[in-house]
């Protein structure tokens, strides 16, 4: 079959419209441009034509199609009991990137709705397509025009790459202006439910509907046997050869995280501002960090590009969920099978590490006075041993029931277990180094403060370091440390020396951090003053950096 291309990029001419409409009326397949992505259209009332869509796409039969209509008044032709809110939404947002799930009328065949008693209705915002649908006088069932499992098509060239020879025609209407598919809201349930974030921001939908519930499948991977309300949400829309990891958080933060793992053989999807950060990696830019509309326009194009680039793994920066960010985030996370590193947005995290007696605690107390939220990882660990079920289970799996006493963890028993056995200690460290960052991240996210200080002797040995915008090694002259430990812990010089000898070298911390703070103040007052000055300066600098 030869696929006929109707070029409507510049002007729309009557005979092309008529010819394209004729393909639809004759039961053929016609790819159509919309403002979101290209659709693969057929007469939605013609079962045989609809079946051909599934064949051409290689689409699973249980995934229903959306009916495209040229104006809201067509709703009553195909839908029963159209609620008042549907008319209001249509008035407000059509033509535009919104699909409403409504009760279907019997004239809509099972092939179109995959047997559901509901049907998705949408009025796309594209002059050529609206003209073709009107001329055909049939509702156009159209999924995105990609082959199943591929990214949606945002240009006619993408459609031809996937569909040439498999369909009768394609209307070339230029590149899609939105770039991600329509927002889908189910109006047959109360409260209305968002089944897919898309080109119409959730906030705008909420302005009209209020209290829209977000379907679970939007935010996370469903478990075995769980069914999303939009059948299509269970399919991974794009499966690159290499595994994808989405990294959230402010651009500077996620860029730093990715840069540490970047290099030859790595693919990076990033905001324009950070393109230079990733060395030998294959880098593709999504647009600038603040321009979510541009990110939406480019996201599928970029994912598609990775088909022809050989990499072992792919990391993607990700916008926050506001506005169009929600749709971009969802498409990236779906491409990643929801493999995500959730770094925080809007927070500056400063990590402190160093030997005991160097004065970390004083420094952090000063930071707290400046309005920061402080996470003391020793205290956090102790707290998690008491209350964190995942940590307790991991410990039980590794060390057995004998480290528990009447259901509670027995720290002494655990200590004895790992005390003189290096392999047991390594086992414990692996568990702790996974748990503490997880707990810290949760506290960072929940904190109201925007500046966070982390106090951790093992800061640079685990994931904690990845959350930090800046790391500081606190050091002090040996003599001073010795005296401080003796006074603080009330122990002899000999005991204090032993304790110091058991620690890592100063250079270990210094070489792993962004900055070394030398704490050589003779009195606590002097130290506090020195710390305050230093921290004020640091906070200022980090703010400018963001
Ligand atoms: O922007 C768009 O919506 C594009 C353009 C072409 O209009 N179309 C599109 O269609 O993205 P498609 O088939 O790729 O995605 C439609 C999604 C699928 O996840 C499907 O499961 C869901 O909508 N869907 C369709 N009818 C439904 C229904 N009655 N109930 C629940 N979900 C439905
Ligand atoms: Mg699709």
Explain what this protein looks like in three dimensions:
There is one protein chain. The chain is α/β, with parallel strands linked by helices. It has three domains: 4-210, Alpha-Beta Complex (DHBP synthase); 244-342, Threonylcarbamoyl-AMP synthase, C-terminal domain (Rossmann fold, 3-Layer(aba) Sandwich), CATH 3.40.50; 348-545, P-loop containing nucleotide triphosphate hydrolases (Rossmann fold), CATH 3.40.50.300. 41% of the residues lie in helices and 17% in strands. Strands 1, 2, 3, 4, 5, 6, 7, 8, 9, 10, 11 and 12 form a twelve-stranded mixed sheet that branches. Helix 1 (14-25) crosses helix 6, helix 13 crosses helix 22 and helix 19 crosses helix 20 (493-501). It starts with a strand and ends with a helix. Magnesium ion (MG) is lined by residues 143-144, 152.
Annotation, overall tally of beta strands: 24
The DSSP helix count reads 22
CATH topology of the largest domain: the name is DHBP synthase
Radius of gyration: 29 Å
Describe what is shown at a glance.
By secondary structure, the protein is of the alpha/beta class. It is built from 22 helices and 24 strands. The strands form four sheets. Strands 1, 2, 3, 4, 5, 6, 7, 8, 9, 10, 11 and 12 form a twelve-stranded mixed sheet that branches.
Task: Walk me through the topology.
Blueprint: E1 4-7, H1 14-25, E2 30-32, E3 39-43, H2 47-57, E4 66-68, H3 75-78, E5 79-80, H4 84-93, E6 98-104, H5 110-113, E7 118-122, H6 127-136, E8 140-141, H7 156-163, E9 169-172, E10 183-186, E11 193-196, H8 202-209, E12 213-214, H9 216-219, E13 244-247, H10 251-261, E14 266-270, E15 282-285, H11 292-305, E16 313-317, H12 325-335, E17 340-341, E18 348-353, H13 360-369, E19 373-376, H14 377-387, H15 389-399, E20 404-405, E21 408-409, H16 411-419, H17 422-446, E22 451-455, H18 464-467, E23 470-475, H19 478-489, H20 493-501, H21 506-510, E24 515-518, H22 524-545
Parallel strand pairs: 1-9, 2-9, 4-7, 6-10, 11-12, 13-16, 13-17, 14-15, 14-16, 18-22, 18-23, 19-22, 23-24
Antiparallel strand pairs: 2-3, 3-8, 4-8, 5-6, 6-7, 10-11, 20-21
The structure holds threonylcarbamoyladenylate and magnesium ion (MG).
Threonylcarbamoyladenylate binds next to β6 and β7.
């Amino acid at each position: 079959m030869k696929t006929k291309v109707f070029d409507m990029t510049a002007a729309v001419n009557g005979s092309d419209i008529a010819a394209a409409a004729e393909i639809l009326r004759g039961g053929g397949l016609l790819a159509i441009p919309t403002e979101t992505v290209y659709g693969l259209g057929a007469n939605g009332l013609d079962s045989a034509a609809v079946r051909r869509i599934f064949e051409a796409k290689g689409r699973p039969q249980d995934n229903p199609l959306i009916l495209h209509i040229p104006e809201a008044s067509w709703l009553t032709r195909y839908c029963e009991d159209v609620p008042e809110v549907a008319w209001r939404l249509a008035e407000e947002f059509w033509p535009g990137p919104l699909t409403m799930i409504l009760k279907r009328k019997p004239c809509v065949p099972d092939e179109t709705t995959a047997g559901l008693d509901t049907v998705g209705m949408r009025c796309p915002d594209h002059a050529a397509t609206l003209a073709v649908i009107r001329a055909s006088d049939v509702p156009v069932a159209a999924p995105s025009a990609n082959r199943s499992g591929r990214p949606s098509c945002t240009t006619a060239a993408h459609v031809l790459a996937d569909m040439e020879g498999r369909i009768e025609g394609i209307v070339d209407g230029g590149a899609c202006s939105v770039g991600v598919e329509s927002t889908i809201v189910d109006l047959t349930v109360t409260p209305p439910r968002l089944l897919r974030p898309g080109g119409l921001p959730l906030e705008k939908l909420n302005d009209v509907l209020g209290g829209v519930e977000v379907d679970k499948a939007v935010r996370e991977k469903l478990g075995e046997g769980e069914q999303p309300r939009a059948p299509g949400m269970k399919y991974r829309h794009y499966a690159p050869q290499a595994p994808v990891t989405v990294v959230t958080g402010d651009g500077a933060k996620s860029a730093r995280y990715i840069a540490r793992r970047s290099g030859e053989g790595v693919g990076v999807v990033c905001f324009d501002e950070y393109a230079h950060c990733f060395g030998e990696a294959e880098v593709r830019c999504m647009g600038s960090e603040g321009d979510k509309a541009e990110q939406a326009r480019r996201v599928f194009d970029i994912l598609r590009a990775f088909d022809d680039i050989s990499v072992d793994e792919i990391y993607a920066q990700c916008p926050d969920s506001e506005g169009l960010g929600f749709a971009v985030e969802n498409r990236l996370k779906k491409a990643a099978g929801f493999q995500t590193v959730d770094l925080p947005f809007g927070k500056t995290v400063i990590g402190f590490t160093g030997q005991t007696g160097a004065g970390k605690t004083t420094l952090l107390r000063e930071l707290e006075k400046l309005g920061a939220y402080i996470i003391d990882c020793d205290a956090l660990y102790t707290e998690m041993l008491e209350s964190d079920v995942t940590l307790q289970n991991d410990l039980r799996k590794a060390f057995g029931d004998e480290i528990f006493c009447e259901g509670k963890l027995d720290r002494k028993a655990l200590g004895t277990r790992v005390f003189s056995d290096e392999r047991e200690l390594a086992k414990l460290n692996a568990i702790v180094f996974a748990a503490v960052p997880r707990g810290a991240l949760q506290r960072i996210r929940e904190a109201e403060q925007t500046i966070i200080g982390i106090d951790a002797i093992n800061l640079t040995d685990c994931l904690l370091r990845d959350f930090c915008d800046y790391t500081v090694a606190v050091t002090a002259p040996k003599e001073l440390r010795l005296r401080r430990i003796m006074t603080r812990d009330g122990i002899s010089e000999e005991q204090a020396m032993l304790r110091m000898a058991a620690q890592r070298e100063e250079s270990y911390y210094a070489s792993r951090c962004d900055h070394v703070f030398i704490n050589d103040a003779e009195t606590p007052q002097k130290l506090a003053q020195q710390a305050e000055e230093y921290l004020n300066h640091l906070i200022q600098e980090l703010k400018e950096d963001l």
